[in-house]
């Protein structure tokens, strides 16, 4: 979105980032973010409700049963454990809470257990927005979750279509698209993003941003790869701060109305880089536990967001 127009093609995005100095792009994206979204900042927290032994072969993931990573393995947590963390996070000022589970897709037995957890949370804290990230899901299971109070379903597309096929062979992006279509059909919003730094080219990052645009995604988690020993990407070199910030620019230009969400791997970024990303266009974040990687401390995160002139208490357009 340069000159008030959303960028819709590879050529337009490449032309923009070649034509304009990087500082001008930063300022343009900052203006887009604050003009379209104001100063409201969306926060969410997750709990890894079921861990390990995942049958999928995603090359970045510690929880895949295909790799020896030393990942913790456990069945579905108790409702009490989930409730306690939800209440703790709400008391910290976090607006939404999600169960995240390993595995290809939830069967109906597990779905009913998740639904019971959500009902307990909704009963105890009605103001908390409830989300779910449970893998590929059918309309039947999503309907059960929606009736239990879940308003948003998360299913990452992970990377550009041209790159995803090199990263996972056990499921397809088409199956992910079917999941988010089913979520929308039962009345849920959709959250879908991916991981930057998995060996993709800059052009493929543009392709990925454009792909999410075609899907109409309005909440885009941007993870930075945290190379995990034992996975095929365990020795991948980290992207430079400049490349990470340029990725934020690309996603903001292509998806001006979407919430761009700081997600996993953020601990590898220094504070100044995080501040720049927030200035450019990151206007939401996962804070607290971030699956199997080290998370930022919630209090420090909230301080950082306020320092960058965001209001974590204000209602956002994503919540409406």
UniProtKB/TrEMBL annotation:
Belongs to the radical SAM superfamily. Biotin synthase family. Homodimer. InterPro entries: Aldolase_TIM, BATS_dom, Biotin_synth/BioAB, Biotin_synthase, Elp3/MiaA/NifB-like_rSAM, rSAM, rSAM_sf. It catalyses: (4R,5S)-dethiobiotin + (sulfur carrier)-SH + 2 reduced [2Fe-2S]-[ferredoxin] + 2 S-adenosyl-L-methionine = (sulfur carrier)-H + biotin + 2 5'-deoxyadenosine + 2 L-methionine + 2 oxidized [2Fe-2S]-[ferredoxin]. This is Biotin synthase. Pfam families: BATS, Radical_SAM. Binds 1 [4Fe-4S] cluster. The cluster is coordinated with 3 cysteines and an exchangeable S-adenosyl-L-methionine. Pathway: Cofactor biosynthesis; biotin biosynthesis; biotin from 7,8-diaminononanoate: step 2/2. Residues 36-266 form the Radical SAM core domain. Catalyzes the conversion of dethiobiotin (DTB) to biotin by the insertion of a sulfur atom into dethiobiotin via a radical-based mechanism. Its cofactor is [4Fe-4S] cluster; [2Fe-2S] cluster. Gene3D superfamilies: Aldolase class I (3.20.20.70). The lineage of its organism: Bacteria, Pseudomonadati, Bacteroidota, Bacteroidia, Bacteroidales. [2Fe-2S] cluster binds at residues 98, 131, 191, 261. SUPFAM superfamilies: Radical SAM enzymes (SSF102114). [4Fe-4S] cluster binds at residues 54, 58, 61. Its EC number is 2.8.1.6. CDD domains: Radical_SAM. It comes from the Bacteria. Keywords: 2Fe-2S, 4Fe-4S, Biotin biosynthesis, Iron, Iron-sulfur, Metal-binding, S-adenosyl-L-methionine, Transferase.
């Amino acid at each position: 979105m340069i000159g008030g127009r959303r960028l819709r093609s590879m050529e337009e995005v490449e032309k923009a980032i070649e034509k304009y100095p990087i500082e001008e792009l930063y300022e343009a994206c900052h203006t887009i973010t604050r003009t379209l979204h104001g100063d409201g900042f969306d926060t969410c927290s997750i709990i890894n409700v079921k861990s390990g032994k995942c049958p999928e072969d995603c090359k970045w993931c510690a929880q895949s049963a295909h790799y020896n990573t030393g990942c913790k393995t456990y069945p579905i947590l108790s409702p009490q454990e989930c409730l306690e963390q939800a209440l703790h996070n709400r008391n910290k000022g976090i607006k939404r809470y999600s169960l995240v589970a390993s595995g290809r897709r939830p069967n109906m037995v597990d779905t009913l257990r998740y639904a019971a957890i959500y009902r307990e949370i909704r009963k105890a804290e009605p103001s908390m927005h409830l989300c779910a990230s449970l893998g590929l899901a059918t309309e039947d299971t999503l309907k059960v979750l929606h009736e239990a109070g879940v308003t948003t379903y998360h299913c990452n597309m992970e990377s550009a279509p041209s790159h995803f096929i090199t990263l996972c062979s056990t499921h397809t992006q088409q199956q992910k698209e079917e999941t988010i279509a089913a979520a929308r059909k039962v009345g849920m919003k959709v959250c879908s993003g991916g991981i930057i730094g998995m060996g993709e080219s800059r052009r493929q990052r543009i392709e990925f941003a454009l792909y999410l645009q075609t899907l109409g995604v309005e909440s885009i988690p941007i993870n930075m790869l945290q190379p995990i020993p034992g996975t095929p990407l365990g020795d991948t070199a980290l992207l430079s701060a400049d490349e990470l910030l340029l990725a934020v620019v690309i996603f903001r230009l292509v998806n001006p109305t979407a919430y761009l969400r700081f997600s996993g791997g953020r601990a590898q970024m220094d504070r100044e880089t995080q501040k720049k990303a927030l200035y450019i266009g990151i206007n939401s974040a996962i804070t607290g536990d971030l699956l199997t990687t080290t998370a930022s401390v919630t209090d420090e995160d909230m301080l950082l967001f306020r320092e960058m002139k965001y209001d974590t208490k204000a209602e956002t357009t994503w919540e409406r």
